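Notes from hallway chat w/ T.B., transcribed later so I don't forget. T.B. wanted the structure written out for a chain they're using in a teaching module, and asked if we could keep both sequence and structure tokens in one place. Agreed to drop them here.
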Amino acid sequence: MSTTYVVIDLETTGLDPENDRIIEVAAITFRGNDILDEFSTLVNPHRDLSPFITKLTGITQAMVNEAPGMFNLRSRLRAIIGDHVLVGHNVEFDLGFLKTERLGVGNHRLDTVTLATILFPNAGRYNLEALSRFLNLPASSAQQAHRALEDAELTVELFLALKDQAMQIPLAQLDELVMAGKKLGWPETIFFEDVLAARARTAFAEGDLRQRGRLPRLFNPPKLDGRAPVPAEKPTHLDHDLVAAMIRPGGNFERAVPGYEYRTQQEDMLLAVIDAFNYGSHVIVEAPTGTGKSVAYLIPAAFWAAQNGRRVVISTNTINLQDQLINKDIPELQHILPFELHACVRKGRSNYICTRLFQQMRHSGPSNADEMALYARILLWLGQTKTGDVAELSLRTPGERVAWSRLSGESNACTQDQCAMENCPLHHVRRQSELSQIIIVNHALLLSDVANRRAHFARLCRFDCRRGAPSGNGRDQWPQFPGRPPLFGGGAGRD
């Protein structure tokens, strides 16, 4: 029989269960997709409400003065809660207040935030409103955004969406997840047990029980296309007019990008970068927001790489800018350029998972709740990711970040002599960079490569490397590498 759940949502006078009080409570009891009961009421806290709480919730002093106190509601709430599983968004907050009223003390609980980070690791933000937009759930109206019943109804919708997503998990992974969770006593295990039971029934009906016991391959990177750039014997200069025509009125950008506006400052920067490539000089550019700096250095870099068979390393100040370039700017450019362009991102070892270390965790099992939450996330993500990059996950707690450090390529236990190369995200991205014309790194990684005398990027660009450093602040990275004199330059230059 399916588990019965009770979604609880509270509005309170503050955040401290010891000193603040409940001013509104809502409880929705459901089993499967069926709502069994719904209850909500204002609560008299027997104290004054702050103007902030009134503005946040829309609950006034006059409204709560006429409401029953928790003493009068305790028996009703105890009957509603029973021995059911309590569900909440950041459920520990609600449980803290319930426990001061001696309610829900021995009940199992589920946190929809934890479940959402596991099942939707790419959501970005995990508050109730953000998740409702991400999943296209019926969001609370602006007037009711912080009322208990509306938030409880939205939490039920979120829970059902999470269950629908979990129903897509292969049986073998569900088996493994439930086994590890039960061994650790992980609260969210009961959710996946319910899903496993439902999946097993579906699989039996579909004759698909053969999935059980078959663990999918850990990492399935896309097949690498292309071949390593072949350098021309002697590089030839870029044609200023040919390259600049891309962004001039009537050019490729104007035809391909809706609302594109020509900017003289962008062309000035583009021409300066072309000169730096042609003559092996350095260029330092300071330009305001809206200039179109990324396009102004990416286009010359792409033409130089394609025309001369030279790799170009573009170094940014932050990983966020790396992600913007590879996920937004370069894909747009690839549709506009008159030739094929291969590009990749390189980040530090700590950004990539070591599949061998994760395999060890699968055998030994997670040791705490943070490890278990991260383990569950990785187990479901690793068969889908194309990169193995932690940027695709959401590490929410210090404990999860510590757990990741034990599983990443930066760990001392991740060694080349034990590496399963074909199953290694770090090895894959290194191979990808060998086949790419443009490699996007960040200043910290580039300077670490120089400071530690690895010269990995210099070897990749051994045919007259050009480096772009478009985002500035390169000097700020050098304190991380004491004893090395700073290199100062920007834009593009010859090694």
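Follow-up for T.B.: Residues 2 and 197 are 9 Å apart (CA to CA). Might be a good example for the class.
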